[in-house]
Amino acid sequence: MNRCAECSKEWQQRYVMAAKRFDKALNKAMVITIIAVCMAVVCFTLLILCLVKTQRFIDQFEYVEEVNVKQDESGTNIAVIGNGNEVN
User: Would you say 60 and 70 are in contact if contact means Cβ atoms under 8 Å apart?
Assistant: First the structure.
């Protein structure tokens, strides 16, 4: 009987030790997961803000393009952009 009680006690201690290791690893994994989710939310929020600012910039952006159109002897239109740059 004494041997059986010692064996049972030893396995019970091993089980408790394994359960503590598992709980510690699970808690570590949960903390890492929570941190990763929080970082993803922050990054997603920053992405949305950047998209809004870019769209706002595009909506407010104005430019003037000066193009003169000439026609050569054969009737082909030539766009003159700026100071003498020709584009057919």
Answer: no
**What's the pLDDT tens digit per position in 44-57?**
999 999 999 999 99
Give the C-alpha separation, 56 to 54, whole Å.
5
Report how far apart, in Å, the C-alpha atoms of 21 and of each of 9, 15, 27 are.
Answer: 19, 10, 10
Asked whether the beta carbons of 79 and 68 are under 8 A apart, the reply is yes
Main-chain dihedrals φ then ψ at residue 67, nearest 5 degrees:
-130, 130
DSSP element (H, E) containing 69: strand 67-71
14: amino acid identity, one letter: R
| pTM beyond 0.70, yes or no | no
